[in-house]
Write a structure and sequence with these properties.
53 helices; seven-stranded mixed sheet; 17% strand; alpha+beta; 1530 residues
Length: 1530
């Protein structure tokens, strides 16, 4: 039936036999570097899972490249995936395919390649080693090179280098192998080096190096392409014909147009090919209805699009959403006919209300959540999303392997895992602290207000509020005899005297031996005297006494016994010295408490201070610094208290100290090992095939995860369960229990179990020698009791067994059975004890060695999978430490996990295991942001739902999007690819906006992204991902915009067409645009450490060791921002030679790849992600008063000025002179002209402007063009023009910084570049620059403008003409905002201006302009002519010097009489006549046509030369050669 319809349609159309190729636009983006092999990218992907896996993979694919020859490209690719599959799960293999399609790891491979080329490689070497700077291509030379290596400096290794896992030694030579994995040459090197590294004679590092890189371009993906519809109010299209490239896009035959699938039709009716092409074209024309819609037709478009999407089968819905949003301008009319159900409207409104309340999302917003993580598409790109997917995969697969499915997965994922605190506090409610004052109760403070609400009262900044509450507590731990104590006590007195609201307490750590008394030990005497004064008088009196006692001690001396008794006699003559200081003293109570508290607290060396319980670091304890530090802490803590009062957590009734000590970061003692932020965890998520540990050989072949899983499965526990039978904390003790320290450790753990319900302890043996019957007696007894006895009996028996008296009995020959206790099953125990083999202990020792990284005999403690250890020889782990460890483990996430696991209703032992495993998994995962719970009120009409495949790991993806927004254009293809890559449970809510008043989208859009590498029918790799726009209407004028990740700098590389003005009616075939990723940006922020301000005008250079100055940049004052162009590789960042290097030095840097204090800043770029670094600099001591941007001339001596006068005189006589003889003079005498242009017409104008400048000046000219928007054809021909007319030129580029408000319209972006970056676009050597609009014709010497006196203003502009009277109604600046803002000043035109860059930088004009722009540009209605409105708006802050009117004549605003004296003529648009530019140019400026013809002639000659050159060089390649070429591209 379908065929009949087609045929009748064809007849109806009465088609003539005309074949016209399909029209369209394609855009592609290639990397600047050659294609990198998939095998190497795969190795980098696997390397992210750990070094061990990387080297296992490398061993597996040692000689894989031999298969390249015999196989097709597709089967070789599949072979690589198969090999990778041995180390990856199915989900990870899918992510690997996605990563390879994205070429996500190509920069990592290329970075190594670049580092290799910097070595440089020896001639004709497929692989080579570099040993401390000496290179060789042969394995035979390794020995010889190693001998002398020690004398040469070691090479610098980067964070991402692959180091072979050998013995960790620092004193052996480093050998770097540059080779391509999988090749024979690699294998021969690898064999030698891996053996030597295993023996520990060298460190072996591998870096990728492909000796002969493939010449093919590598096409990238992960970016968007927009075709925006341009306004044609003023015709601005070039009429020069473009030479078409012969290429036609292979037609997308499978596309369906209005229900006809043309691919199938052409197959079934080959005889109707031509007519079918015409039919397709006719149908396209009829659907691409671009007639503008009436306002009432637009109102409901968003809801209509949603209704249409929800009405199709759900598997097609995303594709439809992609189609509607990406081709909206041509689909809009068809949407107006869709009816919207009332239920859908109502449901959308309800959901929007709920989303607004729960997550702050409003109508029209687009948001994406993956497993509750918010993915901001303005910041994230496919590369970072791939990283998120990988990170999530580890947790999701872990939970899946642990048997957690469905809803439970989401609940556990969303549990709050408390981040690791870096400031723990010690509980200060301890009797050993002697408080000197009490802000709440002492009379001194009675006049102060007591309410905590006082904290919220406004005060001047820096004022400390005096509130009668113990908000701030300082505890000092001191040894009174030590010299440091003196200053600290005086400081405490200072705080007390000045009534700082600080409660001060002392802990005096003195000798604890009973026999020592005050007459022999000054510390004890001091303590007793202090107690006496405190008892008899009061604490404050005690503090005063200490100070006056210390005042008597000379500097450098310490407190002596004599000084104390002398003080006692003098101050308290009636007191009985013997009764106070002597042996029988009544004032000795609590003497030991201080020392004991100090010992148990686990704090470091004395003296110490705690502020609200948080210890101060040793370098903060300097008495000179301490005062400021404490006051600063008081200020900082005040804000925390204010928040607590505001949130109602701290109320009038609260005890402040109790409130402080109940916070999550308060611990019973300090143990750096437990509290450190650097934490390692076991991975319990493997599912080994067998769980056998009796067979040690079998066990030794397991990898770390499998070994861990077997241990967890076979472990037996001493438990003390909660009432629900579960244990939230599982502790494993590893050690040798034949040693005293091993027994002590286990005993401590068992004591803690007894005291604390919800803890269980497992024991692992790690004997000091090879396990045998003799050195495992105790452990076998422990194990036998665990296997045969009831829990309580086993625990009591083991505690008895571990006591030293039992050990002595055993050593004297007592039998084990004689130590058994009442109530034990003796027979079962004896039978088990006597028959236990030691094989399983060998496996345990292997586990300790390979997984816990312990040597035989070393000890470690594992708490819910977190590894603490190995312990040092003398390191003690006490019962208090176990208590602390338990608290930390529970507060992390164990408590929360236990609550969730409890709801799953499983057996207690299994549940406790699960808590341990899930806790280890969740706390080991990197802490991201908070996971949101996105729920919809109803989801039957407005939420598109796709269910995941059963029994597989799935990602929970929620998208909230209005189908007609830029977010939808981006999100719909992303969601389609996501659902192909991973298993998703998807919900897409149609977040529609009501009552639209304008078209929601004004552009066509494609997002270039593929889920897997694509192959052609003949099994070769397809050329790569491309953005295709095939069904485009022909009438509108389009401009092409590339929307790439933030740090990419992209430029058009090849296209004969005008990509700024694409008009399909005037082209035949396809407009092809080829772009290149020219640079990856290195961005940074730089601050001067001494001032904290950005060092304005500081210059950095970036290069490599062989070419140190490749790119340079200037630091902005806004955020100290700078950007440098780079590419994958290792780069060296330096201060630029000259003033920057003379005045400044680099002190520290973050985010770089060299140590923070290294002089050379080394930065490795090895991914498509943004790289942002922080650099801190400081002026050199002798240059403190110098300013980077100050004039250099002041420092010139008299001889310099005489010399320069003489050289000017000499030149005037000789008529010039050699150009290079005086850099200064040469610098002065160049005209620097800056201009921007986009599109072929403006480039044509630009060439004419250049010619008119050159015709009117004798001064050498240098043109500066903004490279970002120039067409490939302009960049090709500019060099020929420079050669013919003898000028210099430079292309400058700058990427719009991410923090500066982005413009979306291309024209506005170009305007922004005209004004916003003047201070950073040009080198500091350029003093003055003149901006000339492209559509201007110059009739005077611009040297006069350059030398014009700006009278101290940073720039000069010409005001708008007033002389043409009939245009009065169009002069917008004469009324409204502008009239009042400008006052008596004029409104200036931005077509021509001169900038004094020195002054401009000195007064930070660029930073001010950017600041004002940032404030104004948020409002879409302000700055309508950005480049012109901004300087006029800032006229009061950055002065404009008005240039004489004749510098700028334009017909629209100036009368004809003034044209005669015009120095430049601008082709302004005329709002009245709207005359096209080209006609106006020829009419207004007679010389324009001559200039135009002259340039056309030149371009014609250039074209001819190129054509003849091409014909000479291109023999036609045979088909055979082509196939060969494609074969080897992996």
């Amino acid at each position: 039936m379908r065929n009949v319809i087609v045929l009748s349609l064809l007849l109806l159309l009465n088609i003539h036999h005309v074949i016209s190729a399909p029209k369209g636009v394609t855009a592609s983006l290639s990397a600047k570097w050659s294609m990198t092999p998939f095998l190497l990218e795969t190795s980098e992907f696997i390397g992210e899972d750990g070094n061990e896996k990387f080297w296992q993979f490398v061993d597996t694919v040692k000689e894989l490249t031999v298969y390249k020859q015999g196989e097709s490209v597709r089967s070789y690719y599949n072979l690589v995936l198969k090999k990778a599959g041995q180390f990856l799960t199915d989900l990870q293999v899918n992510l690997l395919k996605f990563a390879l399609a994205l070429r996500s790891y190509s920069p990592a491979v290329q970075a190594s390649q670049q580092i290799a080329s910097d070595e440089p490689p020896p001639e004709a070497c497929p692989a080579f080693v570099s040993i401390h700077g000496q290179r060789s291509c042969s394995t035979k030379d390794i020995k010889k090179l190693l001998k002398a290596a020690a004398g040469r400096p070691k090479p610098y290794l980067h964070k991402n280098d692959h180091t072979y896992p050998g013995v960790n030694k620092t004193d052996v030579p480093v050998v770097i192998l540059y080779a391509e994995i999988g090749t024979k040459k690699f294998t021969s090197f690898h064999k030698v080096l891996s053996e030597k590294a295993g023996e520990g004679t060298l460190v072996y590092v591998l870096r990728h190096f492909v000796a002969v890189p493939k010449p093919q371009k590598m096409l990238l993906s992960g970016y968007g392409v927009e075709l925006a519809i341009k306004s044609t109010e003023y015709k601005a299209v070039d009429d020069t014909k473009v030479k078409e490239s012969g290429a036609n896009a292979e037609e997308d035959n499978n596309d369906e147009v209005q229900g006809f699938v043309f691919g199938k039709l052409k197959k079934s009716h080959p005889e109707l090919q031509e007519q079918l092409v015409e039919l397709r074209k006719h149908l396209l024309e009829s659907t691409n209805d671009m007639v503008p819609l009436k306002v009432w037709e637009m109102q409901d478009l968003s809801f209509q699009a949603a209704a249409r999407i929800m009405s199709v089968p759900k598997f097609d819905a995303l594709k439809l959403m992609r189609d509607l949003s990406q081709n909206f301008p041509s689909k809009a009319r068809s949407l107006t006919r869709v009816a919207v159900k009332q239920e859908m409207r109502k449901e959308i409104e309800e959901n929007q209300k709920r989303l607004g309340e729960s997550i702050g999302v409003h109508a029209g917003d687009g948001e994406l959540f993956i497993n509750g993580l918010h993915i901001d598409l303005d910041i994230h790109n496919p590369f970072s999303i791939l990283d998120i997917l990988r990170g999530e995969a580890r947790v999701l697969e872990g939970l899946h392997n642990l048997g957690i499915k469905g809803e439970h997965q989401g609940q556990l994922l969303r549990l709050p895992v408390n981040p690791v605190d870096d400031s723990y506090a010690l509980d200060i409610r301890h009797p050993a602290i002697m408080w000197i004052n009490d802000v709440e109760n002492d009379l001194v403070y009675r006049s102060w207000p007591t309410g905590v609400q006082e904290l919220l009262r406004a005060t001047f900044p820096g004022v400390i509020r005096q509130i009668r509450r113990n908000l701030f507590n300082l505890v000092l731990f001191l040894d009174p005899v030590r010299e440091e104590s003196v200053e600290l006590v005086k400081l405490a007195e200072l705080f007390y005297k000045h009534k700082i609201p600080l409660r001060i307490g002392f802990v005096f750590v003195v000798n604890t031996k009973d026999e020592i008394d005050g007459s022999s030990d000054a510390g004890v005497g001091f303590f007793r005297l202090l107690n006496y004064i405190a008892d008899e008088y009061d604490s404050s009196q005690a503090l005063m006494s200490i100070v006056s006692m210390y005042n008597k001690v000379d500097a450098g001396e310490t407190l002596s016994v004599d000084a104390i008794s002398a003080y006692l006699k003098r101050k308290f003559p009636k007191a009985n010295a013997e009764r106070i200081l002597g042996i029988e003293s009544e004032y000795d109570d609590k003497r030991k408490d201080g020392a004991l508290f100090y010992k148990n607290s686990g704090l470091g060396a004395l003296p110490l201070a705690l502020f609200n319980g948080v210890p101060l670091s040793p370098d903060e304890m300097d008495p000179d610094e301490l005062e400021t530090i404490i006051l600063q802490r008081i200020m900082d803590t005040t804000t925390t208290f204010q928040r607590a009062v505001f949130m109602g957590q701290l109320t009038e009734g609260s005890n402040v100290v109790d409130y402080l000590m109940e916070q999550a970061n308060v611990v019973p003692r300090m143990n750096p090992l437990i509290l450190s932020t650097d934490r390692k965890y076991l991975d319990f998520t493997a599912k080994p095939v067998v769980d056998d540990w009796e067979d040690t050989t079998m066990f030794s072949f397991f990898d770390s995860r499998d070994k861990t899983a077997v241990m967890a499965k076979r472990m037996k526990y001493f438990t003390n369960t909660d009432e629900d039978g579960m244990s939230a904390v599982t502790v494993w003790i590893a050690g040798d229990f034949e040693t005293v320290s091993g027994r002590k450790l286990l005993l401590g753990a068992l004591k803690r179990v007894k005291a604390s319900p919800g803890v269980r302890v497992g024991v692992i043996d790690n004997p000091s020698g090879k396990p045998s019957e003799d050195n495992t007696v105790l452990y076998r007894a422990i194990w036998a009791s665990l296997l045969t006895q009831k829990n309580k009996a086993a625990a009591e028996f083991v505690q008895k067994l571990l006591r030293e008296e039992s050990i002595q009995l055993l050593q004297k020959g007592t039998k084990m059975k004689d130590l058994l206790m009442q109530g034990m099953d003796r027979d079962a125990f004896e039978k088990k004890f006597n028959t236990l083999e030691v094989d399983f202990i060998r496996s345990q020792q292997l586990f300790c060695r390979d997984v816990l990284k312990l040597s035989p005999g070393q000890q470690a403690v594992i708490s819910n999978g977190r590894i603490l250890g190995p312990f040092e020889e003398q390191e003690e782990f006490t019962v208090e430490d176990f208590q602390l460890l338990e608290k930390i483990t529970l507060s992390g996430s164990a408590e929360n996990v236990k609550a969730k696991v409890k709801l799953m209703g499983m057996k207690a032992k299994h549940a406790s295991d699960l808590v341990m495993k899930v806790d280890a998994l969740l706390t080991a995962a990197p802490k991201g942001e908070v996971r949101r719970d996105v729920h919809f009120a109803k989801d039957s009409h407005s939420v598109l739902r796709l269910s995941p495949r059963e029994n597989e790991v799935f990602y929970d993806v929620v998208a909230v999007v209005d189908p007609l927004t830029r977010e939808a254009q981006k999100m719909s293809p992303l969601l389609i690819v996501l659902s192909q890559v991973v298993n998703v449970r998807l919900q897409v809510f149609m977040n529609c906006r009501a009552k639209l008043s304008e078209m929601p989208l004004k552009s066509f859009y494609r997002f270039v992204l593929e889920s897997d590498v694509n192959f052609l029918a003949n099994d070769t790799v397809s050329p790569g991902p491309v953005a295709r726009f095939m069904e485009l209407p022909e009438s509108p004028l389009l401009t092409l915009i590339m929307i790439t990740p933030e740090s990419w700098m992209v430029q058009a590389d090849r296209s004969p067409h005008d990509l700024d003005n694409i008009h399909l009616q005037e082209v035949s075939g396809v407009v092809e645009a080829e772009y290149e990723l020219e640079h990856l940006l290195l961005e940074g922020h730089c601050f001067d450490l001494s001032t904290g301000q950005p060092p304005r005008g500081l210059q950095f250079t970036l290069g490599m060791s062989r070419d140190p100055l490749m790119y340079d940049t200037i630091v902005m004052a806004n955020l100290g921002y700078f950007q440098l162009k780079a590419n994958p590789g290792a780069w060296i960042l330096k201060l630029r030679k000259g003033r920057s290097e003379e005045i400044y030095q680099v002190l520290t840097h973050d985010g770089t790849d060299s140590p923070a204090d290294a002089g050379d800043v080394l930065v490795v770029l090895n991914s498509f992600h943004s790289k942002i670094i922080k650099v801190r600099v400081q002026k050199k001591a002798e240059k403190m008063n110098e300013d980077l941007l100050s004039e250099n001339s002041e420092s010139k001596g008299i001889w310099d000025s005489i010399a320069s006068v003489w050289s000017t005189f000499e030149k005037s006589i000789t008529g010039g002179g050699s150009k290079k003889e005086d850099g200064e003079r040469e610098k002065e005498d160049v005209l620097n002209i800056f201009s921007v242009a986009s599109g072929h017409l403006y480039e044509r104008f630009l060439r004419i402007m250049m010619l008119s400048v050159l015709r009117h000046t004798k001064t050498p000219v240098k043109f500066w063009f903004l490279k970002n928007y120039l067409s490939p054809s302009f960049k090709e021909t500019i060099a020929h023009m420079a050669e013919k007319y003898g000028f210099q030129y430079e292309l400058v580029q700058y990427k719009w910084p991410r923090w500066l408000h982005q413009q979306t319209e291309k024209q506005r972006v170009i305007w922004g570049y005209k004004i916003l970056f003047l201070d950073v676009l040009f080198p500091l050597a350029v003093d003055k620059i003149i901006f000339v609009d492209a559509d201007q014709i110059v009739r005077a010497d611009l040297k006069d403008l350059r030398d014009f006196d700006l009278e101290g203003a940073p720039y000069g502009y010409t005001p708008f003409c007033d002389s043409r009277r009939e245009m009065e109604g169009y002069r917008f600046w004469k009324s409204g905002y502008w009239a009042s803002h400008l006052g008596h000043r004029k409104y200036h035109i931005s077509a021509l201006y001169v900038v004094d860059l020195k002054k401009f930088r000195k007064i930070a004009a660029g930073d001010r302009l950017r600041g004002q722009y940032q404030a104004l540009s948020q409002d879409p209605n302000s700055l309508s002519n950005l480049d012109q409105d901004l300087p006029n708006n800032m006229i009061h802050q950055v002065v404009i010097k008005s240039l004489p009117q004749e510098w700028m004549w334009c017909e629209t605003w100036c009368d004809d009489a003034s044209k005669v004296s015009a120095k430049t003529i601008d082709l302004c648009n005329n709002p009245k006549t709207k005359e096209p530019k080209l006609t106006a140019a020829a009419r207004i400026v007679p010389e324009w046509v001559e200039y135009d013809n002259e340039i056309k002639q030149l371009l014609g000659q250039v074209q001819e030369q190129q054509d003849t050159a091409t014909q000479k060089h291109t023999p036609s390649p045979s088909q055979h050669e082509k196939v060969e070429d494609r074969r080897d591209e992996l």
